[in-house]
Amino acid sequence: MCGIVAAYGDIDPDKCERMLARINHRGPDDSGRVQLERAWLGHQRLSIMDVTGGKQPIADETESAYVVGNGEIYNHEDIRDTLSEVRFATDSDTESAFRLVLRDGSAALYEVRGMFALAMAHTDGHGVVARDPIGIKPLYWARLGGVTLFASELRAFDEEDQPKVEAFPPGYVWSPGLPGAAGASGATGMAHVADGSMVRFADAVPVQVRPARYAPDKSWDEAVLSQVRMVLSDSVRRHMMSDVPVGVFLSGGLDSAIVAAVAAKVADAKGERLPTFAVGTEGSADLLAARAVAEYLGTEHHEIIPTAEDLEEALDEAVTVIEHFDPALVRSAVPNLLLAREAVKHVKVVLTGEGADELFAGYSYVHEDPAFSTPDALQAELVRSIETLHELNLQRCDRTTMNYGLEARVPFLDATVMEEMLAIPAEWKLMGEGRTEKQLLREAFQDMVLDDILWRGKEQFGDGSGAGEVLAELVEKEKAKEGAQGAEAPVVEDGWDLRSDEEIAYYRTWFRTFSGVKPNQTLGAFATA
After folding, report:
1. Cβ of 470: how many Cβ atoms within 10 Å?
2. What is residue 374's three-state secondary structure?
3. Fewer Cβ atoms within 10 A, N terminus or C terminus of the chain?
């Protein structure tokens, strides 16, 4: 996990250095850069794999091709096995993807499994920029005519470049044009280099599991439960790949408890004790539930019991940190910020339960709205929610943790897990006939998770954490501070109509840092505010 900046075309090294400096929080361990004739690559490193030897940019043996990367490649060892002819310079997972693309071209990105944003450049003018299919790792770009810029966060871009910034689409690969030949737009020289070309290399949801499959029976059998358990457990094991300590965020709910249960077994097999982290006011339901999970699993548990001042500080900085003003997203950033600030004192990597609700229909609205009462309609909504994660929950998850130089990993969004879980008949995920939400997932792990947690209902942070009343007061305070109570909503150019006083308040905070950024080009929003 790191922060990257890349530029192709007419290079301004001072601009590139400014951009890299603005995201140094993403990689406080080291910094590196390389400038070629028509490309510049910069890297802020959070050392997780090959701590001593994995400094970036990484070069090939002729020092004519270079790569910087953000994220983790979970099948990097398998990739290395297919590249027996290559003499690797490091044990970095990023180098595995780099060498594969050098050998086979950008089509090989389909074989890369993980969360990543990669930028490669060659002295002959060739290059590759790619983002993982789900968009777990962030990437933005700005096409400025003579140069195309890339960065891990919105804040990296100079103010005058902000209007041109767009979210780089997940599952796509971009390559710069080569000087000496005009492109499709007729551009030549550096303009053609900067124009480049782009193509999709993978979908967030594979096409074969996008439509709903009808259930062969009214309910599932032990073979289905065993497959769910095996696939998810294998994913957690892969996501614990690290040369530094790994922990788990415990929310007190089902999804993080499942991740912790598997991770605790993996840690125990190594003779280690799994660190876990939870947040809530003293005696709150979430804190007590997380504590029960930790005691049951025997983890090294850490609790954050925030004061009103802690919550206010987290809410105040949440908008700028997550680079977003959607109210639900801002409020949900509060526990992540508090957890990350504590966890980074003990680990460099944490696993979370993100993605389980999208795979197993865990949100109440899909069961309450008749529009999703058929298998086909429910499956379509699950696919839609997964495809928008990169601009909502995954953005919040990435920014809140990386604000403190902490890497968050999401085992439920592993490519194999996605394909297997979305192949499960959608009607088995619907409530009714004695089923609660996520019944199948609960049954799959009933021998690994405490019964009280296994059947506990879903709560929003604030309800279960005991911080709801304090947060409500802070939201009112925030609205008053920004003059948003009953105020006429600002006109958001290239965005959506602001939907509440709370969103107006957060937007005004966001606008002070990102005034030139166009929300429709960079952000998403939940259906309601």
Report:
1. 20
2. coil
3. C
In the numeric block, which tokens belong to residue 240?
């614990």
pLDDT of residue 308: 86
- Cis preceding-peptide flag for 57 (omega within 30 of 0): yes
Sheet holding 165-167, edge to edge: 30-35, 39-45, 2-9, 147-151, 140-143, 165-167
- For residue 50, name the pLDDT band (cuts at 50, 70, 90): low
In three-state secondary structure terms, 151 is: strand
Which residues, 6+ apart, have CB-to-CB distance to 271 below 8 Å? none
What CA–CA distances, in Å, run from 57 to 63, 120, 141?
11, 9, 19
Q: How far apart are the first and last CA of the chain?
A: 31
Q: Is 2 a catalytic residue?
A: yes
pLDDT at 307 over 70: yes
Instruction: Name the CA dihedral angle for 88, 89, 95, 96, rounded to a multiple of 10 degrees.
Output: 10
Which residue in the block uniquely carries the two structure tokens 């967030």?
Answer: 204
Distance, in Å, from the CA atom of 161 to the CA atom of 144, rounded to the nearest integer, reads 8
Evaluate whether 496 touches 469 at the Cβ level (below 8 Å): no
Distance CA 53, CA 92 (A): 8
Taking the CA atoms of 391, 392, 394 and 398 in sequence, report the sign of the dihedral they define.
positive
Give, as one character, the DSSP assignment of residue 287. H
Task: Tell me if 401 sits within 8 A of 350, measured CB to CB.
Answer: yes
Instruction: Determine if residue 125 is left, alpha or beta; phi over 0 gives left, psi from -120 to 50 gives alpha, anything else beta.
Output: left
Place of tokens 């696939």: 231
> CA–CA separation, 321 vs 400, rounded Å?
6
Task: Tell me the H-state helices in 150-269.
Answer: 189-195, 222-239, 254-269
Q: Reading across the β-sheet that carries 349-351, which strands appear in turn?
A: 300-304, 275-279, 246-249, 349-351, 407-409
- Which of 107, 133, 129 has the alpha carbon at shortest distance from 207? 133
Confidence bin at 181 (pLDDT 50/70/90): low
pLDDT tens for 423-452 read 999 999 999 878 999 999 999 999 999 999
Taking 60 as the threshold, does the pLDDT of residue 477 lie above it?
Answer: yes
Q: H or E stretch including 440? A: helix 439-444
Contact criterion met (CB below 8 Å) for 172 and 199: yes
Q: Is the peptide bond before 211 cis (omega within 30 degrees of 0)?
A: no
Classify residue 71 by its DSSP letter. Answer: E
Among 2, 100, 193, 205, which one carries the catalytic annotation? Answer: 2
**Helix, strand, or coil (residue 270):** coil
**Cα separations (Å) of 447 from 131, 252, 432, 433?**
37, 17, 24, 23
Contacting residues for 411 by C-beta, under 8 A, at least 6 apart: 232, 235, 236, 238, 239, 259, 351, 417
